[in-house]
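Need residues for this backbone.
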């Protein structure tokens, strides 16, 4: 079944979410919203918010430390660090380099890749391919986001949806065929970029007094359009990856979807004909943490023993770009 020439397995996972909890009722004090609206439209009850001075690299480093410890590896064993984030500490150096230094990793190639909420699946495929090439051995991959830093806290249509956090995984080669990361199906459609984007801060709209007055440095979203596209592309990616591996959905022990909106996941469940009890959910606690969403859920699913050795699991995500992806994993 595997199309990959050398097996690559998830050797360890880790996650970190900040201590500060912001509930829907807390948000109702700053924008015109309610717990009832947010919960019924999204399934979200609360989210975590990073402390002042706590950056994406700090959260990523904490998740990564846990992942390395679970994998039984030391920082000097890591030769590749890839980070997925849309909220890097700064445009450069990369958040991967910042995490490298925080962990004392001295002998690794480090880079960031940006594919928004699909970012973790993108870095997973890139890292797996580099390990398969034989040029790298032990990859640390991290999804980390401080979305609270780019939210418009006066815009009720976006600020209620997102939260902060980080998740990480260590990928290593394995001699056991047919185990670990079996296949990926990634995609992108730049033509739909403006349904979800942040216009300011890059070379198109560098920071000026005018860009700040026009609120260009905040995330903008046309939610209803994103909703429809999300269901469509995740259904497509999931069906394609199952079909190209000769599998049917009954063989999946667990689906870990990007945690954006419970209604999106429910629609996906009905279109894939996979019952909701096989979907791993934690968005009630964390909201949408973009690139951190899948690795936080993956780590919690391992720790909760929702996934065990031998299980076949499907990871599926969508995000700004648009980007999307699915991955099939056989737990070692
Ligand atoms: O990782 C990818 C990130 N993005 C997403 O996953 C977002 C995908 N989209 C969604 O999750 C949903 O479209 C939303 C949760 C964003 C919105 O839900 P919806 O059911 O599509 O609501 P809507 O945009 O159609 O808005 C319905 C009403 C509007 O009022 P009117 O025009 O009917 O009077 C909104 O102004 O709800 C209003 N509204 C709110 N009311 C209370 C929008 N946001 C809020 C709010 N509180 N926070």
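Answer:
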């Amino acid at each position: 079944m595997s199309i990959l020439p050398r097996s690559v397995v998830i050797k360890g996972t880790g996650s970190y979410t900040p201590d500060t909890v912001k509930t829907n009722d807390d948000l109702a004090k700053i924008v015109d919203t309610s717990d009832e609206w947010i919960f019924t439209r999204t399934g979200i009850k609360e989210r975590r918010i990073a402390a002042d001075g706590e950056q994406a690299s700090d959260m990523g480093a904490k998740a990564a430390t846990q992942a390395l410890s679970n994998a039984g590896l030391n920082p000097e064993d890591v030769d590749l660090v890839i980070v997925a984030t849309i909220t890097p500490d700064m445009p450069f150096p990369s958040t991967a380099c910042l995490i490298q230094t925080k962990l004392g990793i001295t002998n690794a190639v480090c880079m960031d890749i940006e594919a928004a909420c699909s970012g973790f699946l993108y870095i997973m495929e890139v890292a797996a391919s580099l390990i398969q090439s034989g040029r790298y051995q032990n990859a640390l991959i991290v999804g980390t986001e401080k979305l609270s830093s780019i939210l418009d806290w006066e815009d009720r249509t976006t600020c209620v949806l997102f939260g902060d956090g980080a998740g990480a995984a260590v990928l290593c080669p394995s001699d056991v065929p047919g185990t670990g990361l079996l296949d990926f199906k990634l995609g992108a459609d730049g033509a739909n970029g403006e349904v979800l984007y942040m216009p300011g801060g890059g070379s198109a709209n560098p920071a000026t007094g005018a860009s700040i007055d026009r609120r260009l440095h905040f995330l903008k979203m046309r939610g209803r359009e994103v909703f429809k596209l999300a269901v469509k592309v995740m259904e497509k990616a999931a069906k394609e990856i199952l079909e190209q591996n000769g599998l049917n959905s009954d063989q999946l022990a667990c689906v870990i979807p990007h945690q954006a909106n419970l209604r999106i996941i429910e629609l996906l469940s009905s279109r894939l004909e996979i019952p909701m009890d096989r979907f791993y959910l934690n968005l009630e606690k964390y909201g949408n943490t973009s690139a951190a969403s899948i690795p936080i859920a993956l780590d919690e699913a391992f720790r909760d023993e929702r996934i065990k050795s031998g299980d076949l699991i499907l990871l599926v995500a969508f995000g700004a770009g648009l980007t999307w992806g699915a991955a099939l994993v056989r737990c070692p």
